[in-house]
Amino acid sequence: MLERMGFDGRWINLVMFCVSSVSFYIAHGGQEMGPIVASRGIRQGDPLSPYLFILCAEGFSCFLRSYEHSGLLTGCKIARHAPNISHMLFADDSYIYCKATEEEAYNIKELLHTFELASGQKINFSKSSVFYSCNTAVGLRDTICDLLGIFEADENGSYLGLPYSIVDTCKELERLMAKFWWSTGSTQTKGTSWMSWNRMCRHKHAGGLGFRDLRDFNLALLGKQGWRLLTHDSSLVGRVFKAKYYSTTTILKAELGDNPSFVWRSKVEAKELLDRDEALIFSIQLSDNVLEDRWCWKFEKHGGYTVNSAYKHLQVLKGAWPAVQPSNLWRTIWDLKVPPKVYNFLRRAASGCLPSCVQLQKRHVPISAIGPGAVNRGKVDELEKLAMVAWTIWRAHQYKIAQERRGFSLSHLATDGVKYEQWERPNGNKIKVNVDRALFAQEGRFGLGCLARDNTG
């Protein structure tokens, strides 16, 4: 293979030396054991393994093309003017297309056997399957399966264990993530949802948490495929889709069609990213110089399409991303150098997501509006509550420093108001003594004072 591809003999000898001289060491009981010399060359995970795999896959591809050019394999066309496709390779999976005839089935079996002898690899027929078109006779299907020794695949098959007909996956994933986010306790019970998932997907400077909107992100990924069809229309995929769906126009003018595939439906949906700028593109006056035009994505300085810029563009259109200048409030909150729990409290206070009595009643939580920690009976603005709590904490902190106060609780919000203390007269002929003291720690001194008064003062 390496000689056929034109590699130098010294390079081939180095590669074969690496393959034939591989050895392994293992650690057991704190000691290194080895070397263990492999009898069949390198294993998967070796740095050289991917390159050798690509070389073998390229040899297999060339082998298939030679069979196609010799007329032993016909390949497949999805449209009249579409290119002929005989095989597709995905990592370690291979798709081979041919006519449903005994002759071509025998040619494929011979091809696979020859490749096994040349490469030393073994085809796993238990993991292989055959797909037929709907107009293939049942008897012919059984004959080909018996000839190849492969079972016929179910119509609702799977790829890598995953079914390929998944409906509404993005919404289901977002529902599961939201359920996990708002769940409480070790039992993962459903908690109160204080913010919708759409608000949580907003940018942090727009009042959200910056979670990914999976549908928009998937649309941005599909837009990249549409951009490739637009800028690389001569590629194999571009020629196939053009022959099938927009043979007389461009992808910007393409329509869904009568019987579209799932892949084409996705690309047409992502085409909206390009359609929004179509009028602006065609209004540009072209230069008199005869030069080849090049498509440019206006949301990137280098003019190339990127998924992040497309996702940001979709979020800006929905108002979930600040287009020009973000809010000063949110920028100030996220720029603070405070612990994460303070971030969470400030964010929830600014978003109206604190578990106040009013918010709990809005969510149909059975709780009275006059609770033990209620500040006011009316609907008090959350920022006013935050200011009152902050002022009370500051006042209690100063009182603790001056009077060595040890405790503080939310009950001070309702009880610690401005109090006026007035001297009360003693009863009868008693004398009332008021005492106070002062401590001067820095000077090492203290002072005492007392005042004795009867009922007349």
From TrEMBL:
Residues 1-164 form the Reverse transcriptase domain. It holds the Pfam family RVT_1. PROSITE patterns: RT_POL. It comes from the Eukaryota. InterPro entries: RT_dom (IPR000477). This is Reverse transcriptase domain-containing protein. It comes from Cannabis sativa (Hemp). The lineage of its organism: Eukaryota, Viridiplantae, Streptophyta, Embryophyta, Tracheophyta.
